Every structure is written in structure tokens, then in C-alpha cells.
From TrEMBL:
It catalyses: 3-hydroxy-L-kynurenine + H2O = 3-hydroxyanthranilate + L-alanine + H(+); L-kynurenine + H2O = anthranilate + L-alanine + H(+). It comes from Sinobacterium caligoides. InterPro entries: Kynureninase, PyrdxlP-dep_Trfase, PyrdxlP-dep_Trfase_major, PyrdxlP-dep_Trfase_small. This is Kynureninase. Its cofactor is pyridoxal 5'-phosphate.
Length: 414
């Protein structure tokens, strides 16, 4: 990337950065270096005006008329078609709705209805827990011999055998940032007659994802990380067109009905992607999430990925150069091609170290038992941010500031 690591060299990289113009579109607090966009993205400045517009005008004045006049009713599909462009999907294959966990429940159940003779789901054991929990809850309801076969990265393809109904994996590991090979694993999944499900929470808005190019069956993800949709903003569901109308999800609410305003007694599933909807949608959250999507749609996804790799590489090199004596061990892959837009290090005192760093206005997060995790959002993270973050960490470690009692008190959210 560069031979000499210096703040001046980072400043030069920022001058050459084709994405630098996007930084001014985000409300980053003065003096803060925000390296937690892999957990919650920064607010787009335009989101505030959009929220006020929805509350004051569309809700306050339009009231119920806004379902038609402001086109509230089509928000899940409209946002879904926008998001589809970022993940290699076609129009009418994605809806933005509900939470990632609920959406995973839907698509996992839909997949199992197409492979009723098989009882095994393959998952990553060290996955973000909610995926595993939702699958466990579904299988507890189904009973009848269903099981989850947990495997880790290097053993994944060997776990995919001809008794498997579905392979349900997170594309980028939430702790390590390691990327699963979507194309290869999906091909192996189909080879044994199973269906593929991918969680894109740490991919959408950070990587160039190609769901249809990889022949993926189903996918889910969120909009509040790299897509900057706001805290708790809705997730999304992808269902390949070849499965629409065949794979039926079990949360059969009225928005997934073929004709919601016919108010029929019995459920008839919508024929396309709309069948993945359930109940009335959170209009405020959807409207604000659209702002982040619109910003990202103006960016070049290839440029985003290229900058992501440069930012994470710079961070790893600076940590190696300046912090190796302080007990940090790299957890993320060294190879940028195998790494998402985040870097994790383990440290025996990871929690207080991160709290001390946050007190110095460098915001990352901690994942038990010992991971300090840093996310790099190419639309607003600069190369100078990376330099300054490491510089402040060096000062904390040299002075052992993390030993202060205030940094060793665990909060509810880490």
C-alpha cells in the first residue's frame, strides 16, 4: 500500500481518495474517530430532514392518506429494489422488512419446506448468536429429528453432505471479519441438493456481493451497519425468483397476502417477493433508511471495496508497527481478499482498553471474551482517522490508562 507509514502519507491518501466527498454527508461528531460502522453506521445529515418531513408532513398532515399519497405502502418493495443493486439481485427479489433474526426464521423455514425429506442444517458454530438461536427455536418447534450441524471455516465444505437440507452462513464473520467463499460454498451446497442461505449483515455496503452470480437461494441482512439506516432500522430478505411462490414462509401476516385489502378470512400467499412480508411496516424507520441507501447508490461499489481493503491493511500495519509490544494479537485474516471491512485483535484486557480508547474519542467495540473490534466504513472513514486512532491507542497503552477503575466497569452494551 505504501512503504512509509506516517500521518503525512495518510493525508496524501485522503487527497487522492475518490470517495472522500461522501464524508461531508455524514454527521460525525467533532473530534470523534468513529470505527464502529460495522455495528451502527453514522447518521446521514439528510436523515434528520427526512425524519422531520415524515413526522410533520406525511404523518402530521397527511395522516392515513399518506399510505397512498406518500406511497408508504410500497416502501418495502421500493427500498428492496434499491438494495438489490448493491447485493447482485434483480428487481422484485428483495424486500426491506422486519429484523434480521425474524427474516432468517422466515427463509430457513421456507427452505425446509422444499427439502422435507432432509433434517440437517449446516451453520457456523461461532456465528453471531442470534442466527443460531433463531434456527434452534425453529427446529424446537418442528421437532421430528431436525438438527443443526455446526462447523467452523476450514471444515465447512466437509460438513455439507447429502443429508443436508440447508446451509445457513454469515458471509463475513462478525468477530474475525473472515469472508466465506460464497460462490464455492453455494456450489457445494447445490451439488448435494441443499439450499443456500446467506446472512449479509457485515457485507451489504462493504463488499461487492453477487447473489445471483453465485446462484444463492435466500439471503438476509440489515440496514443499520454499513448502509447507515439508523438504530434498529429494518432488515431485508432476498428470495431468488426461482423460489418465489414455492417457498412459503410461516409468519403469514396480512402484508404477505395476495390481496391484503380484500380482508379474506383465509390466507393466500402473494405470488412474488411480497410473500416474505408479514405485518404492518415501520414507516418512520423505512423512510429514514432510504436516505442511507440513496447515498450508497451514488458510490462505486468497487471503489468502496478497494478503499476498505486499504483502510484495514493500513490499520493492521500500523498496529504491527506501533503496538506489537502491548499484547495485541491479530484475529482477522492478514490477506485482505479474505477480510471484510473490519479488523479484530484479541487482548487479555480488551474491554478496559476499548473503554479507554472510547474515552479518547476513538469508538470501536468489544466482543467477548477478548476481542477489540474496529469497523471501517469507506464512505466516511479517512486514512488520517486510522493513523490518529492508532496514535491515541499507543498513548493509552504506554501510560496504562486502561487500568483506571472507570474503564473496568462493564456496561450493558459492549
Amino acid at each position: 500500500m505504501m512503504n512509509e507509514y506516517s500521518r503525512a502519507a495518510c493525508e496524501q491518501l485522503d487527497l487522492e481518495d475518490s470517495l472522500s466527498e461522501f464524508r461531508d454527508e455524514f454527521a460525525i461528531p467533532e473530534g470523534m474517530i468513529y470505527l464502529d460502522g460495522n455495528s451502527l453506521g453514522v447518521r446521514p445529515k439528510a436523515a434528520l430532514a427526512r425524519a422531520v418531513e415524515v413526522v410533520e408532513e406525511e404523518w402530521g398532515v397527511g395522516l392515513i392518506k399518506s399510505w397512498n399519497q406518500a406511497d408508504w405502502f410500497s416502501l418495502p418493495q421500493r427500498l428492496g429494489n434499491k438494495l438489490a443493486k448493491l447485493i447482485g439481485a434483480d428487481d422484485d427479489e428483495v424486500v426491506v422488512t422486519d429484523s434480521t433474526g425474524l427474516n432468517l426464521y422466515k427463509v430457513l423455514a421456507a427452505a425446509l419446506t422444499q427439502r422435507t425429506e432432509r433434517k440437517v442444517i449446516v451453520m457456523n458454530g461461532s456465528n453471531f448468536p442470534t442466527d443460531n438461536y433463531m434456527a434452534q427455536g425453529l427446529l424446537a418447534q418442528l421437532g421430528d429429528g431436525y438438527e443443526i450441524r455446526f462447523a467452523e471455516h476450514d471444515d465447512m465444505e466437509a460438513a455439507i453432505t447429502e443429508d443436508v437440507a440447508a446451509v445457513c452462513l454469515t458471509h463475513v464473520h462478525y468477530k474475525t471479519g473472515r469472508i466465506f467463499d460464497m460462490a464455492a460454498i453455494t456450489a457445494k451446497t447445490h451439488e448435494v441438493g441443499a439450499l443456500s442461505i446467506w446472512d449479509l449483515c457485515h457485507s451489504a455496503g462493504a463488499l461487492d456481493v453477487d447473489l445471483n452470480g453465485c446462484n444463492v437461494d435466500f439471503a438476509v441482512g440489515c440496514t443499520y451497519k454499513y448502509l447507515n439506516g439508523g438504530p434498529g432500522s429494518p432488515g431485508f430478505i432476498f428470495t431468488a425468483k426461482c423460489h418465489q411462490g414455492k417457498a412459503l414462509q410461516p409468519l403469514t401476516g396480512w402484508w404477505g397476502h395476495a390481496d391484503p385489502f380484500a380482508f379474506e378470512r383465509d390466507y393466500r400467499p402473494a405470488p412474488g417477493i411480497n410473500q416474505m412480508l408479514s405485518g404492518t411496516q415501520p414507516i418512520l424507520s423505512l423512510a429514514v433508511a432510504e436516505v442511507g441507501l440513496d447515498i450508497f447508490l451514488r458510490a462505486d461499489v468497487a471503489a468502496v471495496r478497494a478503499k476498505s481493503k486499504k483502510l484495514t491493511e493500513l490499520f493492521i500495519r500500523l498496529m504491527t508497527q506501533r503496538c506489537s509490544q502491548y499484547g495485541f494479537t491479530l484475529v482477522s485474516p492478514e490477506d485482505a481478499e479474505c477480510r471484510g471491512s473490519q479488523v479484530s485483535f484479541s487482548h487479555t484486557h480488551g474491554y478496559p482498553v476499548m473503554q479507554a480508547l472510547i474515552s479518547r474519542d476513538v469508538v470501536g467495540d468489544f466482543r467477548a471474551p477478548d476481542n477489540v473490534r474496529f469497523g471501517f466504513t469507506p464512505l466516511y472513514t479517512s486514512y488520517v482517522d486510522v493513523w490518529d486512532a492508532v496514535d491515541r491507542l499507543v498513548d493509552i497503552m504506554e501510560k496504562e490508562l486502561w487500568r483506571d477503575s472507570e474503564f473496568n466497569q462493564r456496561g450493558a452494551v459492549t
